[in-house]
Amino acid sequence: MNQHLTPERLAEIRQREQAAIEGPWASDGAEIYRTFGGDICIDHWVGETLVIENDELSNANAVFIAHARQDIPALLAELDRVRAERDAFADRVDTLTAVAKSNKRNVQAVTRECDELKKRVAELEDLAGAQRRSAERLSRDVQHLGDLASERQSLIADLETRLHDAAMAKVWTNEDGKKFVFVEDIAPHLLGLNR
After folding, report:
1. What residue segments make up the domains of the chain, in order of their start?
2. What is the pLDDT of residue 133?
């Protein structure tokens, strides 16, 4: 008989245990008696087990029944304790399961947030790289503009020198008293050929 103890069956067992004469019980051969202080009381005879032609089995049955008076209450108490412990563990498992599910949701939320932050960091790194490249181009452009400005200054200085040299070229005066120069006289200075 390997059936689970239903609440009804367990209640029946408890009722039978509580209705029987108080223990402890002991056996004297095949007979079962209530004991007081470890001594068998013959006036509290509980019953007898008799297997014809098998005293050994009769005695074993009597010992089993006599000890059942103490064993059943002990087993019921142990069953109550184990079930209470099981129920406490079940409650704890339910609590831990709820916490684990909550933690799982929190971990998933944090993981999603981390993924979003990683994407944002990658975007910002790409933007920073683009801005760095743009700044490098701008720096090269500014350098180039500086070089061009320097070259312009050099060209202006050269042109000023040429104009000065051209102005120092031979000036002629015509019969009206007007001064003039020949292109052949100033061209080498303007073109920088006389250097």
Report:
1. 7-93
2. 93
